[in-house]
Amino acid sequence: MAMFVWLMLLSTVSGQASQNYIIEVASDSCQDIDQVNTKYSQYYDSASLSCKPCTQSNDIQTKSADGLTCVCKTGYRYVKNLASTVLCSKCAANEIVSSDGWECMVPSGDCTLDKNIKVERQLNGSWQGTPYTQTCVACTDQTAPNTEANRCVRCSESLSLGATSCTCASDSSKLAGGFCFPSNVTLITGDRLFEIPSIEGTDNVKSSYFQANLQAAHTMCKEYGNVTACQIVANLCVLILYNEATGRICSAFKQLEENRVSNLPQLYFTGYASDVIDSQDISDSYTMTPPMTIPFVAVIYSLNGKYLKTEALTDGLLQLCDTTATLANAAYVFGTYYSYSCSIKALKLWNTAKYPLYFYDIYLKYTNNGQKFLYKVPLRFLDLRKGDILVNQGQTRDWVVTRRMFLVDNLMTVEPSQTSTTQVAKYVRYAKDITIYMALQDGTTDGKIKIPYFTIKYAEVSRQSAEDGAAIQVSFSVQYTMSWSKYYRDFQISCGTLGTLSMLYAGYRTWVWSKRAGRPAIDFPSIVNFFFFLCGAMSNCFFVIAFGVSFYWFIFFKRQDAVYLLHPDGGNIEDWLGLAAAAFALRCLSLIHMIVMQCTVDIFFMDWERPRGISRSQDGKKTTEVPVTIWRTFFVANEWNEIQATRKINKVFQIFATVFFLEVVGFVNTTTKDPDGTINKSADGYQAEQSFIYRFALAVLVYLVIGVVQWIFFTFIYERFVEDQVQQFVDLCSMSNISVFIMSNAQFGFYIHGRSVHGKADADMQEICEMMKREEENLCGQRGLVPDTEAQTFMMSIPRRLRLKYDQVYLPAALEAAGAVGRMEQGRPGSRLSSNKEKSIEAYNTLNKFLCAFIDHSLRDVDYVVKDKTLLESIMDTEFFDASEKGIFYNDNGHSFDQILFYGNEMSLLLFDVLLFCMVDFIWMNYVLDGVITYIITELVCMIRDTAGRRNLVRKTLVDERFLI
């Protein structure tokens, strides 16, 4: 109680009830000023952060030793000392000022006797005579015993204003907080005035401190404008988290504001919160190169309203977590998306030395035309209530933004019933989460920001839980945002434009497919194929947009000087993530469509080999042709089966190289949400949170670059100088005297001309060697379909009559193949050839002869011509000439048929791989795990393609699956 009374009499600094948000910064070493040829000393007002003149000239008053108030000069006594108003009066020439500074007295002689003290009043309060003597009498005349009870001192300020003793008369005054107020003063009352409202719905606690000091502080502020009292009233309002319910101190504080009470600090911003936090008054520009620190400062007050100091928000001033200064200060490096959390033993919060109950007013320093200013930073208390409504969790316009905050309250829940030995807070309230929000000014290109604001979430922990070993989680973070209207508009334009082009492209591909499939009318298969073509096109579209946007953010955020671009947040991330996920989902559907299309093609191995002679029966009457061996066909079928799921790039190397560059080399270090784009970062420095948008951009870039480099290497080096599997298959067909007739659509396909220039391939080793030597020495014709040419592979537009004939002849073989596969699946392969099997073999021979005759131009009504595609046909991947009457074989580059293999669709597969890699990364944020899962899934896809292709090969070519190795 005595401490409170003493503090109330201090000459402390007031916070003005001004609603201005900007304060001009003055030096705290205030100089004298000249007013009409009279000099006045100035003191530093810590609330307004400015210098103010003393009430009287510097002949009478001067600033105090700490520079925070004015004091009377030597020879002058106090007439009034109400903090902001100090009046002094001169003593007579033969008088000195008393030790308390309030009275004039005749000086005494020297008082140097051992163990004697100089006293100015007798024990009854009357002045001592001359020489001074020490007596033991009762205090009187506006004095009272001090704490040590060894001398009489003045009563309180209020008593000196009219009371004649230190005891309140019950009929003429009121006692509150050790003050005796006149009877005409109304003390604030309320049912819940002294209660601390619970944050988490537990019982409210009646506060001993509120009960002892609230009424006196409110009355002293209201009636006398006492600076310290007004600061205490503001602190008490903050301590109940700005709860404005009727009967609460915050409601009374609002009334004081309306009544324009002097020396009242500002707690609330006026107007709409959206207008406050959207203010664009700050003229400073912030850069990332070089990195700049956000110059936040805090004006700190004690619980009893005393100004303590003004300090920068560095070294973890507002962070409860114990961490290094380097890590804590990283929060204020502009552009760093900071997030730091920790667990603290709850019992530590009761340590008032480590966690003192201080109050903080936050400011932002900035300059304008060379002059320094402070901007008042708004605070958003998430627990601020109006009635039962948490107003600061609703619309921005309805927020109530305030000025003052605290970190830990470990004093207010001490109850009045507790004795001095059990004065322990029932529970502690603490700032569980503090987030600073920074926003760029609209349309800025030079790094100008709006006023930042703090969002604070409080929590509480009981003493019982703390003693049971409970721990609390606290966090501190910094978030950035900007106006995304331009980005959202560009995003919509990109999606709309490329989406429209994708639909047109899908429609075009469907038209090409329908023409090749012989379906001139729109039917259900056309619609289905349009859907899947659209999936592939839209996947490409969404992938290009997602990668383009993420790469743009990644590169320009890291490389900007004056800040104009920030990491996306909120709905922008959701839109982008939805686009990337849609690209992956559509790519999966497109991959399924590709596999189904490849595994349902019609393929036939044409055997050009002719019987090598005629065999006669034993009686010499019956002759038959010696049949050719089937092993050549089996061998070609095996080679075809092997290359069906072969990729152009090496999957193991692709994954290994990607993970190596991302994790081992350290490219992943560049994907943090901070301006630092270096690979090698300090181990003791702060590592900002990883951005999955930047991780996506980096992963796609590295993955595609490695994939493209592999593709170039295999295409231009490996295939040319080491091994070309596709060309080797064509050469194998020539050596085996087997051609491959492939119909990927009903009236479109590919032809591999494997007819041997030697007329046969069923030979022993000596004959094979001789044939190869003859070919090396150009002693035989060329392998091309057209005489004197080398072209062996063609794209085909076949006439409808050929397709009908093919289906008619192949139907029995297809049925028998399906039946054979079914029996093998059931474990009943059959012990001997059935009549249907014999018919299918006959159909196979017939079809072989038919297709050979077609290639040899031996059919009267079905023929073809060989020509080159026009440039426009090659570019648009279609055929413009009518092939309904006569087929057309188009010369190609020797690789056209790999379109029905994985080998010729590497870019589509690479897009699937990289999207899969990134989707896995969205879940686990671990590139090593991404690589492992991606490899496993790509291997499964290849296995599915291989299995399905093998089954199709068995069905379409009558090659027994047991001969496919």
A few lines on this structure:
Helix content is 36%, strand content 18%.
How would you describe what is shown here?
This protein is an alpha+beta fold. The protein contains 21 helices and 38 strands. The strands form 13 sheets. Strands 1, 18, 19, 21, 22 and 26 form a six-stranded antiparallel sheet that branches. Strand 37, helix 19 and strand 38 (887-891) form a beta-alpha-beta unit. Helix 9 (485-516) runs antiparallel to helix 10. Residues 1-19, 111-116, 130-137, 157-163 and 827-833 have low confidence and may be disordered.
Q: Main attributes?
A:
38 strands, 18% strand, 965 residues, 6-stranded antiparallel beta sheet, single chain
Low-confidence stretches: 1-19, 111-116, 130-137, 157-163, 827-833
Approximate strand percentage: 15-25%
Helix percentage:
25-40%
Instruction: Output the structural class.
Output: alpha+beta
Tell how many strands the DSSP assignment holds: 38
**What is the averaged pLDDT score?**
84
Largest sheet: 6 strands, antiparallel
**How many H/I helices?**
21
